[in-house]
Amino acid sequence: MAEEAVLGFLEHNEEIVDSGEFAVEKGINHEEIVNVVKSLNGFGFVVAQDIKRERWQLTTEGKTYAASGSPEYQLLMAIPPEGISRVELQKKLGDSVFKIGCQQAIKNKWVEMGKTQVSRKVKLI
Questions:
Q1: Which of 20, 57, 93, 119 would staple 98 via disulfide (CB 3.0–4.6 Å)?
Q2: How would you list the strands of the sheet with 111-113, edge to edge?
Q3: What is the model's pTM?
Q4: What is each CA distance from 11 to 3, 6, 15, 26, 39, in whole angstroms?
Q5: What integer is the mean pLDDT of 107-120?
Q6: Residue 77: exposed, middle, or buried by beta-carbon count in 10 A (0-12, 13-18, 19+)?
Q7: Count of CB atoms within 10 A of residue 29's CB?
Q8: What stretches of 1-125 adopt beta strand conformation (E)?
C-alpha cells in the first residue's frame, strides 16, 4: 500500500517534499513510507534526502523550575529579611532544592551561610 502510494504520487508529481506530511495525507504509517523510500532509493529509482528535526522538551524537573524558579531563586525567596535557620530553610525547600540552591546562591554571593543561620546578602527589588 505504501509503495503504491509513493509510486502513484511520483508518477504525476516531481517530488514528495516531506514524507511525514505525505504519510499523514495518505493515512499511512510514516515508518512504512520511509522504508519504501529507502528501498526505492537503494535501487536507484528515486533520490532521497533525509530531513533532520529536533524537538526540545522540558523534563519534569525543568517544568518545576519553569513554574517555581531555579533552586537558587527559590532559596533566596524563602529567606525572610531577618534570616532563617538552616534547618527551617531545608524543611521549607526540601533536600534537593536546598542543596542545589545553596551551592548556586553562595557561588553568586546572594546569601551568607552561618553555622545555624542563613541570611540574604542582596536586597530584593
A1: 93
A2: 84-85, 117-120, 111-113
A3: 0.59
A4: 12, 9, 9, 15, 17
A5: 92
A6: middle
A7: 12
A8: 84-85, 111-113, 117-120
CA distance 5 to 74: 55
pLDDT in tens, 15-43: 999 999 999 999 999 999 999 999 999 99
What does the DSSP assignment read for 23-38? HHHHT--HHHHHHHHH
**CA separation, residue 69 to residues 4, 63, 102, 106, 113 (Å):** 53, 9, 14, 17, 21
- The DSSP call for residue 17 is S
Residue 85: phi, psi to the nearest 5? Answer: -75, 150
Q: CA-to-CA distance for 101 and 94, rounded, in angstroms?
A: 10
Please state whether 83 falls in left (phi above 0), alpha (psi between -120 and 50) or beta.
Answer: left
